[in-house]
Amino acid sequence: MVELLRTNDLVLISFIEALLAGAGIECFVADQYMSAVEGSLGFLPRRILVREREMIRARQVLRDAGLEEELKRDEREARRRPAFQRG
Questions:
Q1: In the predicted model, what is the mean pLDDT of the chain?
Q2: 77-86 pLDDT, tens per residue?
Q3: Does residue 85 sit in helix, strand or coil?
Q4: In sequence order, which residues have a C-beta less than 8 Å from that of residue 87 and are 6 or more positions away?
Q5: How many alpha carbons fall within 13 Å on the CB side of residue 54?
Q6: Angstrom distance (rounded) from CA 17 to CA 33
Q7: CA-to-CA distance for 38 and 64, rounded, in angstroms?
Q8: Which of 10, 41, 53, 61 is the most buried (most CB within 10 A)?
Q9: CA angle (13 as vertex; 40, 31 as ends), nearest 5
Q10: In this predicted structure, what is the pLDDT of residue 35?
Q11: Could you give all domains of the chain from N- to C-terminal order, each with its CATH number?
Q12: Are 55 and 3 in contact (CB under 8 A)?
């Protein structure tokens, strides 16, 4: 699986999960249980993962739902991450 998006916004994660499920795209939210480690402060982002073969279609589903800016924001932030943290 590959990273589609990384965010701290739990409402956005739920929305994306519903959009992808509606399109028949299986996804996995990684790091969602890290809140126990971080003390529920919400500073560790959750990652939405999809199968590599579904990535283009998943990105299109998000664009069609008006979430293109979220994808662009995540891409900008990804460029600032150290190489070992990039999806």
A1: 85
A2: 766 666 655 5
A3: helix
A4: 2, 3, 6, 47, 78
A5: 19
A6: 16
A7: 34
A8: 61
A9: 50
A10: 61
A11: 2-81 (3.30.70.790)
A12: no
Dihedral, CA of residue 49, residue 52, residue 53 and residue 54, to nearest 10 = 20
The two tokens of residue 19 are 């959009």
Residue type, 49: L
Encode 34-54: b = buried (16+ Cβ within 10 Å), e = exposed. Answer: eeeeeeeeeeebbbbbbeeeb
Looking at the chain, how many residues does it have?
Answer: 87
* pLDDT given at position 78: 67
Place of tokens 């990273």: 3
**Which residue do the tokens 């519903």 mark?**
18
Q: What is the DSSP letter of 82?
A: -
Using alpha carbons, list the distances in angstroms from residue 5 to 39, 73, 77: 23, 9, 10
**The residue to which tokens 């939210």 are assigned:** 29
- First CA to last CA distance, the chain: 10
